[in-house]
Amino acid sequence: MLAGLVALSVAVLGGCAGDADHTGLDPADLPTIQLEEELRLGVVEGREGEEFGGIRGLTLTSNDEVWLMEIRPPMLRRFAQDGTFLGTSGREGEGPGEFGALNAVEPLPDGGVLVLDSRQGRLSHFDAEGAFVDAWPLPSGIGQRFRVDEAGETVYVEARDNEARSQAMREAAEAGAAGGGAQGQLPEAPIVWIRLGNEMEVMDTIRTPPAERELGGGMVFSTAAGPVVPGLSERLQVLDRQGRVIHAWNRSYTLEVEADGQADTLVQVAAPPVLKTPAERRELEERIGEDPRVDSPPSLNPEKPILAELELDLDDRVWARLRTEAEEVDGPGFQWQETEVLWHVWNADGTPVGSVRLDLGVRWMEARGEYLWVTAQGEGGEQQIIQYRMVEG
After folding, report:
1. Does one domain contain both 1 and 81?
2. Which of 226, 249, 236 is CA-nearest to residue 340?
3. Which of 207, 231, 249 is the last residue in one of the domains?
4. In what order do the strands lie in the sheet with 113-117?
5. In this structure, is residue 375 part of a structural domain?
6. Residue 32 has pLDDT above 90, yes or no
7. How many domains does the structure of the chain reveal?
8. What span, in angstroms and rounded, lies between the C-alpha atoms of 102 and 63?
């Protein structure tokens, strides 16, 4: 079945991947990927290892185990491919094999994993049996993401370039003083990726395109469908396991890939922006106006950003989540929400895999081969992990 998904990438473009033109595609041309549920983990009580306390992420190891990263309390849970609970690794604390805050987990070729703990500023190694092996301190200013290359020899850790931010602030202050003008929005610390060798030595730093964040009066609201950011324009970016930065301005559907100072267009889709409904827009403006930090309710852009987020799976496929039309829903919180979670999936060379639709409240976690893992909420409010097989629609 996976071979069928890969074949779609070539068939849609009518040629081989190396010669294909990945620009100017129509979203309607993307094949639909159907999801067949194969496994569901998570109960209110009763089954060992399945009473989850907040799943932050997961990964799949080379021996096909599923490792869940839990945050309340911080620990790792291990499951076999058939859902059999295998045990836990780590616990809350400051000692070897203990966690302050779990941020991300990545697989290693030997069946073990590396885990990022940004609160304690270190990476911890657990072997294929779940036993703690070693830990390495990281440079200051690290973020919450990291990548390990396929060979397990190079680690890329996200960080913030606070020195560059300080320099930008000094320049802004000098320009303001010279011009006699008011200070503008403070610059953000640029995102960089620190490349570490197999002994965790710092090799170099990968710079990324500026975030170019434009708030436009927008604030972030949490909803069942994910964060709602009215009016926010920004550059989304991820790093693949080859050390390439993949990024996109969220108000245009153009994915670009940058490596060694060379930038190329990976994907360009002719996707029109989605309009907020009048009621949706009015509700957002009223919510912002209720915030005591806002002097007067803003008038929001009627167009939503096209892209909501970017993710990279274990096969370095790019998952781009799109904004969709809002519908009126019952229950607490926002009355107008995006009830469909729509993802477009692209191979590492820019050829299309297809589109995946998830229900409201279902969150993408990881994918590899023909399998997709998500989190959802059960009827009793319990958090669940679902394993889907992706098949041709």
Report:
1. no
2. 226
3. 207
4. 104-107, 113-117, 122-126, 132-137
5. no
6. yes
7. 2
8. 22
Mean pLDDT score, 372-393: 92
Instruction: Give this prediction's pTM.
Output: 0.85
End-to-end CA distance of the chain: 11
Reading the block at residue 255, the tokens are 């994915």
Angle at 109 between CA 117 and CA 262, to 5 degrees: 75
Q: 192 and 87 in one domain?
A: yes
User: Is 161 found in the same domain as 62?
Assistant: yes
Task: Determine the residue type at 134.
Answer: D
Q: Could you give the CA distance from residue 336 to residue 325 in angstroms, rounded to a whole number?
A: 9
Please say whether the beta carbons of 77 and 67 come within 8 A.
Answer: yes
Question: Residue 143: what pLDDT?
Answer: 87
Kindly report the backbone phi and psi dihedral angles of residue 306, in degrees, each rounded to the nearest multiple of 5, phi listed first: -75, -45
Percentage of the chain with pLDDT > 70?
A: 80
Residue-number span of the structural domain to which 294 is assigned: 1-30+209-361
Give the integer Cα–Cα distance in Å for 143 and 27: 33
Q: Are residue 50 and residue 178 in the same domain, yes or no?
A: yes
- Structure tokens of 295? 């002097």
Q: Mean per-residue pLDDT for 244-266? A: 92
Band the pLDDT of 102: cuts 50, 70, 90.
very high
Sequence-ordered list of residues with C-beta below 8 angstroms from that of 282, at least 6 positions apart, any chain = none
Query: Are residue 186 and residue 243 in the same domain, yes or no?
Result: no
Cβ burial 121-154 (10 Å sphere, 16+ → b, else e): ebbbbbeeebebeebeebeebbbebbbbbeebeb
Asked if residue 389 belongs to a domain, the reply is: no
CATH for 130: 2.120.10.30
CA 7 – CA 11 distance, rounded (Å):
6
